[in-house]
Amino acid sequence: MGPGTTIQLGTFGPATQASRQGRNQNPSSIIHKDQSSRLASTPLSPFPPAPPPRPQFCLRLRRPSFGLTMEDVAGMIFSGPEFKKMDENMRMLTVDVFKAIPRLTVSTAAPLASAAAAAAPDGVDRISRLPLGILHNIVSRLPAKDAARTTALAKRWRRVWHSVPLVLVDAHLLFDRSVVGRGHGSTQSCEMGLESWYAGLFRILDAMGTLADNVSHVLAAHPGPFAFVYLAGNNMLYHPDKSELWLKLLAAKGVKELVFVNLASKFDDELPIPAELFKCIALTKLYIGTWCFPDTSTSDLPPTAAFPYLRELGLCNLVIKDEDLAFVLDRCPVLEKLMITRGRWPVCLRIHSRSLRSVQVCMAIVPEINVVRATRLERLFLWEAWGWGDRDLTNMSSKVKIGHAPKLRFLGFLVPGMHQLEIGNTAIMVNTKASPNTTVPSVQMLGVQVKLGTHFEARMLPSFLRCFPNIETLYVQSENDDFKFWGPKTGGTSKAINLKFWKDAGPIECIQRHIKKLVLREFRGRKSELDFLKYIVEHAQVLEEMVIVMTHGHLPSDNLGAKLRIFMASAKWANGCCKMMVFKSPFEQEGTAWCYLRGFDFSIEDPFDVSKCREDKCAAH
What we know:
Layout: E1 6-11, H1 70-78, H2 81-84, H3 88-100, H4 132-140, H5 144-149, H6 160-163, E2 166-169, H7 186-191, H8 197-206, H9 211-221, E3 226-234, H10 240-252, E4 257-262, E5 285-289, E6 312-316, H11 322-330, E7 337-341, E8 349-353, E9 358-365, E10 368-374, E11 379-386, E12 398-404, E13 410-414, E14 419-423, E15 426-427, E16 445-450, H12 455-458, H13 461-466, E17 473-478, H14 499-504, H15 509-514, E18 517-523, H16 527-539, E19 545-550, H17 559-569, E20 579-584, H18 596-600
Parallel strand pairs: 1-20, 2-3, 3-4, 4-5, 5-6, 6-7, 7-9, 8-10, 9-11, 10-12, 11-13, 12-14, 13-16, 16-17, 17-18, 18-19, 19-20
Antiparallel strand pairs: 14-15
């Protein structure tokens, strides 16, 4: 080790609160126990089940300074009757959907029922004297029931809710008597002489009707426009007329942001979302979950069907065909953010866009991802994205093609044992040499998942790295060599993966000249990992930081940490000023991690760094 090289021990990031497979979660949490292996028991599944117990987790979203997390709303939904009717597979998939949909902008933290406690001692109503724009802002952040009841506060408030774009979260319409007591609002409205449709609306929302009926009443009563509508509390199979009605109302009243999740009870419940969705032309953000996408070749769609203002699209747990996905993407001329997660049917993604900036494909079967031409694409994230594969969960290969993407800076996680990489028209093979036709010089941050001790995967890694000569930050998720899924049935030769193996691979430009930071997660202390790290530090001339995160159950100060420090001390570091930092894993089990928020937050410089993704630490917006 060079004279300037230092070693730092500690815990990687704050004490992150994350879920891993097997963790027992409170039903109100949106964190899930991964039960992917149980999909194998689903007889009507059209594709091979997801890989079993490859430990994985997805981080829960932080609690914003003002508003609700998805966990808060999910707690309301998950404690409801529809969620309790689901089979085990659908519960797992539904929880994953809730982790992907965006956070809310309304708050139940200070209901109007407690407003009297904060009254000024002199009795002066200063809030009502605020500028009208501020009153609009206040009302727009309240749940629908509380927002409507502001009409009873004072004369100046009577028309505020009516003139504010509606924010509706159906979970707030569940029968929560602790938030809005019987008589508060509607009775007071009558006493104040507000003989308007508001009073009728209050009585409706307090009545013992269904959640679907309450949603219908609110959507019909408010004149619009709708700023944000979140509908995720109903199994729409039991309300076949409601989904079409709601979309018609939303389209007529100019909904801007929409989350529409169907709480299906069974995996094979394939309910089509009405084609009226395409009439919501004012949408800027759209997330739909657990639906069958309309058949665009036969649906009664107008030739001009499009989403001209849509900038963010989330397709969660959908049954959607290749041609229908292509149809919707072609009709989103300003789309910047695309997420595909937990698809229930294999779908190929073809990206030909002048507007897309970030694409996330997570926990989905995607046989091919083809970036044909994407002049603004900056981020392409693949997390647990695999191919079709065989019934024994092998040969789950997926093609990743990168054509014209001059601004692509963030890419990963590529899996050498599963992803067949193509640059331009060239398939990347073992010993593929770097050339202008096989490189993507714009990529600065790359993530890979690789079994460093498995010859089939390790021999592909140098070829992958040569395709990205200007990488400055490299994330390596070290996978367990004992995990035998997704790769070919035969692992090829059993040659030893040692230091000589890496040296024989030849020069790799990004390692020698550009990599400044290396992060290796899930370090188990295997010889293949140590040899890989030694090869890096002996050839990376500008490496400034090497971060090693131990696998769960080990500490930097235990025997495994000591083994690492002793071994690395024998290396001839190419940069004697490089710092090696060894951290305890902040998570409860081994596996990969991902944060959807960071993937879409362009202000974050390192979307792969999930060490701070906890409720009060995540910097994502």
